[in-house]
């Protein structure tokens, strides 16, 4: 297997600097960051004013009482290391931020190098730097000074820059990558992935190799095809409509806790510039369970656009009604009649290193359809996302699908492919994850055998 290697990033003098932030974590957090530099850590800091939700290159300062290598008394403020930080939710008094991919320096270096150039102290720049939070003034100067501080710092900057999302910004392609990555991680969790850190393919994603599909930049694991007619059928059926990419992922070791084949189909019209948003399908072969997630991006005002609602209604009117299951009793609660759910993100960027599923919520289609109907009344032209009752966070949703509580079971694979075809016609992009694992599923009503 060939793994994607970090590429060197050349910074021309005219290039814009990345988004920077200064953080002052305490000793306990620094110890946790050093113990596992890939794990995401939540950290409360006083600055609530983050101008955007994108990832920042974080300059991590050591506590002022931390000793330098030369020993002695209290040291001037020094840089402990670098990392990636993105703002999370606000609390009553501060804001949570998520820190990951931290790189501690071999030797602490003086933080004064950030505002001193050629031996000259820039007092105005020093005063403009935040106690904790994003750097909003003098970013170019701070970034240039940061790279000049030491070869160690320059090396770590080179390692971290490809993990930021500056190259593509918030392009349509990047947003589609983000949604596809999120769906792939949800499906891996549903299929049996123990923890996101186990899914190394996502952390080794190569932006330069990714085309229309996020999974184009992944290195899949080869699996032995079985003699059935499921593997590869999606790729065969949709191979002539645009770009189709297939990757297979299996757990390492002998336990085979997950075995998923992911097929991404992008319509030619999207390749030619039409806006598109992915629908993501999870299909478990052993129980013929189908779940679908439609990825919806609300506007800056928190409203679902009329076009997003129209495409959703058009899709739902086209798909075949799935066979209904007989309930054992009136208390047999499930959401099995309609496998369609809406996945609404919080505004977070695509960054390969931040490989957890995106924050946000998942809503059943029935609830959304009722809200759309209410919004169609006079005087209510738009549907606010806030009017929806939050249903489930992604991790819980994946667990309930895994245990058989959510999803339509007993669905023939051809019917699932018919839904995928309707997606391509109405939304332009589909990601189909087919789960071949034979694990023992939970005790939800969706997996019980009816007499």
Could you walk me through the main structural features you see in this protein, from its secondary elements to its overall organization?
- By secondary structure, the protein is of the alpha+beta class.
- The chain is 25% helix and 24% strand.
- It is built from twelve helices and 17 strands.
- The strands form four sheets. It has a seven-stranded mixed β-sheet with strand order 9-10-17-11-12-14-15, sandwiched between helices. Strands 2-5-4-3-1-8 form a six-stranded mixed β-sheet, with helices on both faces. The chain has a two-stranded antiparallel ribbon with strand order 6-7.
- Helix 5 (172-191) crosses helix 11 (394-402).
- The protein is elongated and about 70 Å long.
Pick out its properties:
451 residues; alpha+beta; seven-stranded mixed β-sheet; 12 helices; 17 strands; elongated; disordered N terminus
State the order of secondary-structure elements, H for helix, E for strand.
EHEEEEEEHEHHHHHEEHEEEHEEHEHHE
The chain-level mean pLDDT equals 77
Oligomer: single chain
Q: Number of DSSP helices?
A: 12
Largest sheet: 7 strands, mixed
Strand order of the largest sheet: 9-10-17-11-12-14-15
Roughly how many Å is the radius of gyration? 24 Å
| Class computed from helices, strands and strand pairing | alpha+beta
Task: List low-pLDDT spans.
Answer: 1-15, 327-335
């Amino acid at each position: 297997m060939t793994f994607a290697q970090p590429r060197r990033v050349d910074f021309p003098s005219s290039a814009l600097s990345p988004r920077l932030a200064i953080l002052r974590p305490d000793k306990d957090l620094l110890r946790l960051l050093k113990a596992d530099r890939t794990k995401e850590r939540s950290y409360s800091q006083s600055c609530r004013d983050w101008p955007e939700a994108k990832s920042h290159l974080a300059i991590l300062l050591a506590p002022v009482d931390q000793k330098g290598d030369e020993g002695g008394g209290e040291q001037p403020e020094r840089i402990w290391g670098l990392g990636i930080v993105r703002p999370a939710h606000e609390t009553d008094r501060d804001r949570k931020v998520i820190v990951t991919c931290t790189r501690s320096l071999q030797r602490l270096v003086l933080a004064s190098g950030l505002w001193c150039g050629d031996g000259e102290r820039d007092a105005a720049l020093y005063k403009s730097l935040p106690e904790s939070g994003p750097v909003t003034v003098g970013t170019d100067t701070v970034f240039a000074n940061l790279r000049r501080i030491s070869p160690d710092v320059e090396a770590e900057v080179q390692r971290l820059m490809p993990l930021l999302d500056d190259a593509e910004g918030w392009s349509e392609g990047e947003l589609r990558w983000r949604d596809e990555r999120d769906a792939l991680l949800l499906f891996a969790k549903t299929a049996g992935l123990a923890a996101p850190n186990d899914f190394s393919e996502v952390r080794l994603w190569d932006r330069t190799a990714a085309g229309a599909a996020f999974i184009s930049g992944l290195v899949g694991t080869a699996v032995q095809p079985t003699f059935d007619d499921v593997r590869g059928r999606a790729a065969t059926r949709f191979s002539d409509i645009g770009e189709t990419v297939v990757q297979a992922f299996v757990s390492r070791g002998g336990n085979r806790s997950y075995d998923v084949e992911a097929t991404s189909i992008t319509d030619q019209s999207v390749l030619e510039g039409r806006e598109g948003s992915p629908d993501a399908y999870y299909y478990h072969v052993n129980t013929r369970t189908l779940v679908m997630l439609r990825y919806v991006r609300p506007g800056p005002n928190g409203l679902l656009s009329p076009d997003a609602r129209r495409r959703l209604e058009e899709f739902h009117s086209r798909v075949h009604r799935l066979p209904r299951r007989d309930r054992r009793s009136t208390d047999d609660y499930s959401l099995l009649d309609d496998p369609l759910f809406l996945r609404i993100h919080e505004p977070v960027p695509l960054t390969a290193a931040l490989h957890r599923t995106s924050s946000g919520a998942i809503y059943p289609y029935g609830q959304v359809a009722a809200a759309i109907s209410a919004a169609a009344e006079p005087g209510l032209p738009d549907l606010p996302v806030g009017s929806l009752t939050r249903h489930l966070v992604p991790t819980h949703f994946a667990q309930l699908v895994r245990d058989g509580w959510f999803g339509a079971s007993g669905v023939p694979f051809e019917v699932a492919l018919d839904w995928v075809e309707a997606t391509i016609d109405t939304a332009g992009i589909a990601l189909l994850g087919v789960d071949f694992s034979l694990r023992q599923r939970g005790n939800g009503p969706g997996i019980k055998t009816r007499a």
